[in-house]
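Subject: Re: docking follow-up (S-adenosylmethionine)

Dear J.,

Thanks for your patience while I sorted out the input files. As discussed at Tuesday's group meeting, I've set up the holo structure prediction with S-adenosylmethionine included as the bound ligand rather than trying to dock it afterwards. The sequence and the ligand SMILES I used are pasted below, so you can double-check that they match what you have on your end before we go further.
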Amino acid sequence: MQKHKPLIEKLFAKNYQLIDGTDDVFELDLALWEYEVLSKEELINRSAYLKLVDGIETAHFKTCNLQNLEEVHKNSSFRTKVFFLDGKYSTGYATHSLFPYRGKFHPQLIRALLNILEIKSGNVVLDPMAGSATVSVEANLLGIDSISVDLSPFCGLMGRVKTFALDLDLKTLQSITNAPKELLENLKQEKVPDYFINNKDDKKRSYYETVLLAFLDSMGFASRTSSSIDKLFPRVLERYISTIKYFQEARQELGLKIGKSKILQGSVLNLPIEDNSVDVIITSPPYSFAIDYLKNDQPQLEYLGYDLESLREGMIGLQGHGVENKLEIYFDKMNIALKEMQRVSKKNAPIIIIIGTNNIQTNGVILETKVIELAERQNLKFELELIKPIKGLQNTMKNESILFFTNLK
Ligand SMILES: C[S@@+](CC[C@H](N)C(=O)[O-])C[C@H]1O[C@@H](n2cnc3c(N)ncnc32)[C@H](O)[C@@H]1O
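The structure tokens for the complex came back this morning:
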């Protein structure tokens, strides 16, 4: 049942309907904002929260329905299946579900933010702490070019696969994956990473990276359950291929034009990006030291041959001893990160930072208050805060803040 029905009927014209599950106040806020700034045609082509626009189904609604999630998740665990079916319109569509990175954005929210900021094809979108590249995928789905930067090489792999899979040749993927047992044996002996080092065929490289991500996904799965990688890998690979297949079919049917992406391994503290070159930044830093991203991805990073300790040094939120010292280093790094965001973005560019406070862990320090203070010192004018409740983690973290700034230069 649609919550807030009388309110929705008052806000939107007849024959306009919201996508099922658009229940939170921040979502209504964003849906109304989209409705006000986008033309009718734009609403049909790119709205995140509308299902019907003057009686016509939106592209987002259609894409999600064409993804055939029941079929994609036929071999997934009950919990995973329910998770993705529940998140059909918010998180489980396109290539977002390929690797469920911890702390990932809700893609539907990113789509709405790009819409209300009126970001169009020809603009460049940046996420300088990109994780699994949710921002890039959403921008590319709207035909907009993007740059993702993350210090973790494993995030680089996720980002490359998720954006590449938006626009690949399905037949090549199917031919490379038609012998999963053989692939698994090679992967277990680390032969596929070898392929990347010795092989010059760049065209096939991205297809093999897709297989490698499926392998690393099963590896994580196997370490959390009693199932073996031999059993899990064929199933995960099949899920990857069917996810990509259904998205490709939807894309063809709807004629979606995919934007280009650059996925870079680098630090937000020293961005490999020119001054005044990006039109908008949407990002979320680590929420102080709530998640140790390196420990989380340790098996995958070690398999790929990276030294965790050398990566740890540059990571935001992973240094210091005791709460006070950890927070001091965290804010020092955030200050440099904000300075870099100010440098690379154009005058008047919007910058959105999404951050949640776990004030139990931080001894009551509110991260967003301090981030606003640091940003304003860098001439990033604070404009607005939207509150997004975090579902399922109510005990430790209640809300995330969506902070809007403008770069005054
Ligand atoms: C909250 S997560 C971002 C998740 C992302 N929004 C997504 O949708 O997947 C924060 C990210 O910041 C990255 N990070 C931490 N320190 C960094 C640094 N110095 N430079 C770039 N990225 C960094 C972490 O690797 C992690 O992926």
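A couple of observations from a first look. The two ends are 47 Å apart (CA to CA). Residues 229-254 form the longest helix (26 residues).

Let me know if you'd like me to rerun anything.

Best regards,
T.
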